[in-house]
Design brief:
Order of helices and strands: EHEHHHHHEEEHEHEHHEHEHHEH
Strand content: 5-15%
Distance between the termini: 9 Å
Structural class: alpha/beta
Number of domains: 3
Number of strands: 10
CATH superfamily of the largest domain: CofD-like domains
CATH topology of the largest domain: Rossmann fold
Helix content: 40-55%
Strand order of the largest sheet: 3-2-1-7-8-9-10
Number of helices: 14
Largest sheet: 7 strands, parallel
CATH class of the largest domain: Alpha Beta
Radius of gyration: 19 Å
Length: about 350
Amino acid sequence: MKRYSSSSGPRIVVIGGGTGLSTMLRGLKKYNTWPTAIVTMADDGGGSGRLRSEIGMPPPGDVRSCLVALSNTESTLEKLLLYRFTEGSLAGQNLGNLFLAALCGICGSFEAAVTSMSEILAVQGRVLPVTASDVHLEATFENGTVVRGESNIFQFKKQQDCRIQSVRLLPEHPAPLPAVPEAIRNADLIVLGPGSLYTSIIPNLLVDGVCQALRESQALKIYVCNIMTQDGETEGYTASDHVKAIFDHAGSGLFSLCLLNSAPLPEPLQAQYRAEGAEPLRIDFSELNDMGVEAVLAPLVSNDSDFARHDPDLLARTLLQLHSERSIRLAGDMRYIVE
């Protein structure tokens, strides 16, 4: 597998949030791809939610995770930024979140704080909050109930066992950071996911101009589907259910490839997930094909985790291989590197 430099490799944009996005970035970093991560800003739970409500800053958690994933620092500093307090008034709070909060006060804006933290951590790439607006997520369930707030959506779904019908941002159609649509239009490879369908991926697509930029981009566009259904969000969903939800919110044809894990999970791990109401994602090939989406299978599951996670290296190598195989090298255009 070719290791790309920042000047010769494909321009990669990844869109999402949560653990899935930072996991993928750790893999891409190994190949010197210098990706741009576009990160959702709708989180209102945990330490991020507390900072958001107490000092009025945007939720830092997902951005901080991506910055640490792309950092080029000593392991001790990385451990410090990931440290979570367990006692006192700071219980549950993450040191990296507090670091970003301090930079936000020093720099005057969250965007400037992210840039400053990127420089401090020698980040190999770029991390962009999808919007600077103060946005909240609202979900409408199939029984007609409307629930506001990402953390409340999860709790209601668990309690009512009712499917999410749609989500929206409040205020609707917030403006993106100017660098976001620019990065999308200039990309050679765009990756959606992996991550929580309704709370990490779709919120990015509801920001004004993001879907338009995706449609205008000539990049290869890939949706990385989760390995498992998600407790409290996508129980009972198939691969096509995930794609349909994205197309229902963003319009059909947003991407043509769906990357899915083909490796079996150990039975003890499956049993652990079954107890939580989750299961390995079922791949319904004909339904995907009817939507104009090709299912691409590869062994992607990590063997070094107690959870069903993507292996960062396997995922990165598969994405770069797909780019090499599927991208057309245009005459005079050196953006595409095909081996």
